[in-house]
Design goal:
This protein is of the alpha+beta class. The chain has 2 domains: 2-37, no CATH class; 55-122, 2-Layer Sandwich (Translation Initiation Factor Eif1). It has 3 helices and 4 strands; from the N terminus they run H-H-E-E-H-E-E. It has helices at 2-10, 18-37, 81-96; strands at residues 55-58, 63-69, 101-109, 115-122. Strands 1-2-4-3 form a 4-stranded antiparallel sheet, covered by helices on one side. Strand 3 and strand 4 (115-122) form a beta hairpin. The termini are far apart. The relative contact order is 0.14.
Length: 123
Amino acid sequence: MSKILKSYFYWTYPRGNVHYDVMVSLILLFIFVTPHLWDFGDKPSNEAGPAHPIQVVADGGHDVIISVQAADVQVAPGATQKEVKKALRKAIEPVTGDAVIVERWETATDAEGKLIWKIWANR
């Protein structure tokens, strides 16, 4: 029995052999069944994406500057810094995922004169 396991481990069986077919079948079974049994931590978004395009520009290193239309960010008037940061993270999450840290932000206008949020984030 240990000789068979050793042969499987070192893949010594020739192509077309029953043992070769068993090994290939086990590999294919692993590839196609594992995603259904294992939680890889990915989470597809059920929400609709932003209504306007989001612009992401590298700022050197691991930093990015993200421009989001103000209409896509749901911030209540008089919101605290923490609430604004949470709303900005939610607005950029469809593009950046949850792997970025919002460092700072400011409001500005784009070329068409529309209000935008400029967000500096770190990966």
